[in-house]
């Protein structure tokens, strides 16, 4: 399951600047709505657009891997969590 590491990125900004950005500030800077940011924070597996990920990476000056985390979920069985491979 994919989850977002928004709190970690927000904490990094706080550590650098002394002020943790709010969702409202991030929303105004990125165009990603506060409700989407909230869903990204609290709903593991939340599905969002690549445009949102791009805007957040620009804002946080990070790579997608710095913003996303993958963890196996309870339904994953060894090897089944991988996408189907095609032979060709």
Please give the oligomerization state of what you see: single chain
Give the overall shape: globular
Low-confidence stretches: none
> Mind telling me the CATH class?
Mainly Alpha
Strand order of the largest sheet: 1-2
**SS-based structural class?**
mainly alpha
Summed over residues and divided by their number, the pLDDT gives a mean of 89
Strand content: 5-15%
SS field, number of helical segments: 5
Proper CATH architecture: Orthogonal Bundle
Tell me the number of structural domains: 1
- CATH fold node name: 434 Repressor (Amino-terminal Domain)
- End-to-end distance, in Å? 28 Å
Return Rg in Å. Answer: 15 Å
Helix content: 40-55%
Architecture blueprint of SSEs:
Elements: E1 2-4, H1 6-17, H2 23-30, H3 34-42, H4 50-60, H5 64-67, E2 68-70
Antiparallel strand pairs: 1-2
Structural account:
The chain is mainly alpha-helical and 88 residues long. It has a single domain (2-66), classed as 434 Repressor (Amino-terminal Domain), CATH 1.10.260. The protein is built from 5 helices and 2 strands. The chain has helices spanning 6-17, 23-30, 34-42, 50-60, 64-67; strands at residues 2-4, 68-70. A two-stranded antiparallel ribbon has the order 1-2.
How would you briefly describe this protein structure?
This protein is mainly alpha-helical and 88 residues long. It contains five helices and two strands; from the N terminus they run βαααααβ.
